[in-house]
Amino acid sequence: MASATFLSTLSLANKNYLLLTPTHAYAKGYTNNFRVSNLPSIVVRKEGSVRSQGFVAMQEKGGSTLSDDSRTKTPHVLTVAGSDSGAGAGIQADLKACAARRVYCSTVITALTAQNTVGVQGVSNVPEDFVAQQLKSVLSDMQVDVVKTGMLPSVGIVKTLCKTLREFPVHALVVDPVMVSTSGDVLAGPSILSTFLEELLPMADIITPNLKEASALLNGMQLETVDDMRSAARLLHNMGPKNVLVKGGDLPDSSDAVDILYNGHNFYELHSPRIRTRNSHGTGCSLASSIAAEVAKGYPMLSAVKVAKRFVETALDYSKEIDIGNGPQGPFDHLLRLKSHSQACHRQQPFDPSDLFLYAVTDSRMNKRWGRSIIDAVKAAIDGGATIIQLREKDAETKDFMESAKACLRICHLHGVPLLINDRVDVAIACDADGVHVGQSDMPARVARTLLGPEKIIGVSCKTPEQAEQAWVDGADYIGCGGVYPTNTKENNITVGLNGLKTVCMASKLPVVAIGGIGVSNARAVMEICASNLKGVAVVSALFDRECVQTETRKLHEVLLGSNIGST
Ligand SMILES: Nc1ncnc2c1ncn2[C@@H]1O[C@H](COP(=O)(O)OP(=O)(O)O)[C@@H](O)[C@H]1O
Ligand SMILES: Cc1ncc(COP(=O)(O)O)c(N)n1
Ligand SMILES: [Mg+2]
């Protein structure tokens, strides 16, 4: 939409720079996070008149960067749409879709709707001049990449939008011509049609009508087949938008959800399996926002539409069992997070340090030696009284490891025992384990925390107070300290002894589990160092390098019960 003109040049540190508005820089592809190779980097000044005038300073070809305070452009979608109090569609769906697709989303609200899973009970339009004020507030300050429109309930609002977009051009415009909600309620009446067709559509980079909306824009044309959708796409394209996506979510008798994309040259028939679900309220809004998000990241339109469609399909599939509201059409879960909390078998308690009491760590070689599966080993340890399990499967193939981890997780959760994975954060994520245990040379706990999120348990092996301090800073939940005694389980492992264990316990606020050569004969001595944050012992060989895991675990459990763990 924007034509790129350089506004002026600027001399800084004896070098010449071109000054562009953010929009112009964008239109030329001069941004860091755009997939435009061999272009000079762009630098946004944080302070001073350059930035405050809303300019982007761009280096002339080559050379070093303008200053150290360079900023990367955050992809930004502005949605101009109606609010849905039930939060399934409209502004609320747009915000969630953009968050899920990882772009920033600002909002201009055109109408308030009182809406739920039953339907729309009321609509109150925002006055035109206040829509104009919101648009100006956002567009004059923030570097919006893509504007996405949803419910535009009056001619005045459509006109205001078109006027403002001419004043503040953006990189792309995605128009979802929302007219009637799936529940059948009118959100924008036929009176807006002519302004829509004459003013807004010609500015659009893509329009995304569903079958009813395509029909309304085409004077009531009947749309019942994929061929009808193609004809509609061609006719709508003649009205000026660069791309047309006719959505077939409501196409009767189709086992796939088929959409037709037409760019004036080619037709693309996009299929995804039709998800059988009641929770499809807001699919159209979410699809359009996701397209806008991908375009804002710099993807071409075809890729943007494909990714967006795949995202909606995945979210619908994930959200099949979500139960919100009593009406015929429920919302879905854009962030794919709700279900795990409602699943009965999911561990919901936060980390409890007393879980470290009898910490069983599996070992694939020992299991092989004794001819037992990892699942049998875990079952036996839990039956014997283990309070937390760590899977330490150094030799396992990833696929086998994942499968066994999933099976172990089911067993652990049946018994309320947390399951951690040694080293393999990827496996922990893939099977939704309760957490990970990492060593000093594994992925840093801080990075694991970012990947796993705030609730998962993270333990770190530490031998020194410095390492213990770092574990705390990195957001670990507990420390594994050892080897307390010499052990064959780990090669070249330095033994810290009871003194080393005590030093780490005293230096840290974190709960500690002792590890290394501990068994029935010496567990009591370990616990008698009397540190209040020493919560238990972690054991490998003394449980798993034995004929009967359950018996050995039970014996150790009894010894530990007789000690004064964490009581001082
Ligand atoms: N049950 C479903 N399974 C998979 N995809 C669907 C389903 N329903 C709709 N879609 C897809 O969601 C997007 C929105 O389509 P649609 O529901 O037709 O729009 P609207 O919400 O505007 O009525 C389209 O890509 C469509 O193919
Ligand atoms: C505020 C608002 N905007 C858009 C829709 C369309 O969504 P759907 O077609 O899923 O009902 C809606 N119901 N409410
Ligand atoms: Mg729909």
TrEMBL record:
Gene Ontology CC terms, in alphabetical order: chloroplast
Reactions catalysed according to its record: 4-methyl-5-(2-phosphooxyethyl)-thiazole + 4-amino-2-methyl-5-(diphosphooxymethyl)pyrimidine + H(+) = thiamine phosphate + diphosphate; 4-amino-5-hydroxymethyl-2-methylpyrimidine + ATP = 4-amino-2-methyl-5-(phosphooxymethyl)pyrimidine + ADP + H(+); 2-(2-carboxy-4-methylthiazol-5-yl)ethyl phosphate + 4-amino-2-methyl-5-(diphosphooxymethyl)pyrimidine + 2 H(+) = thiamine phosphate + CO2 + diphosphate; 2-[(2R,5Z)-2-carboxy-4-methylthiazol-5(2H)-ylidene]ethyl phosphate + 4-amino-2-methyl-5-(diphosphooxymethyl)pyrimidine + 2 H(+) = thiamine phosphate + CO2 + diphosphate
GO terms of biological process kind: thiamine biosynthetic process; thiamine diphosphate biosynthetic process
Signal peptide as annotated in the record: none
Cofactor requirements of the protein: Mg(2+)
CDD domains in the cross-refs: HMPP_kinase, TMP_TenI
Gene3D superfamilies noted in UniProt: 3.40.1190.20, Aldolase class I
Locations listed in the record: Plastid, Chloroplast
Segments forming domain Thiamine phosphate synthase/TenI: 358-543
Pyridoxamine kinase/Phosphomethylpyrimidine kinase domain: residues covered: 84-328
Pathway: Cofactor biosynthesis; thiamine diphosphate biosynthesis; 4-amino-2-methyl-5-diphosphomethylpyrimidine from 5-amino-1-(5-phospho-D-ribosyl)imidazole: step 2/3; Cofactor biosynthesis; thiamine diphosphate biosynthesis; thiamine phosphate from 4-amino-2-methyl-5-diphosphomethylpyrimidine and 4-methyl-5-(2-phosphoethyl)-thiazole: step 1/1
Domain of life: Eukaryota
Sample GO molecular function, one term: hydroxymethylpyrimidine kinase activity
UniProt keyword terms in alphabetical order: ATP-binding, Chloroplast, Kinase, Magnesium, Metal-binding, Multifunctional enzyme, Nucleotide-binding, Plastid, Thiamine biosynthesis, Transferase, Transit peptide
PANTHER family assigned to the protein according to its UniProt record, in alphabetical order: HYDROXYMETHYLPYRIMIDINE_PHOSPHOMETHYLPYRIMIDINE KINASE THI20-RELATED, PHOSPHOMETHYLPYRIMIDINE KINASE
Function: Essential for thiamine biosynthesis. Bifunctional enzyme that catalyzes the phosphorylation of hydroxymethylpyrimidine phosphate (HMP-P) to HMP-PP and condenses 4-methyl-5-(beta-hydroxyethyl)thiazole monophosphate (THZ-P) and 2-methyl-4-amino-5-hydroxymethyl pyrimidine pyrophosphate (HMP-PP) to form thiamine monophosphate (TMP).
Family membership: Belongs to the thiamine-phosphate synthase family.
Family annotation (HAMAP family): TMP_synthase
Protein name per the record: Uncharacterized protein
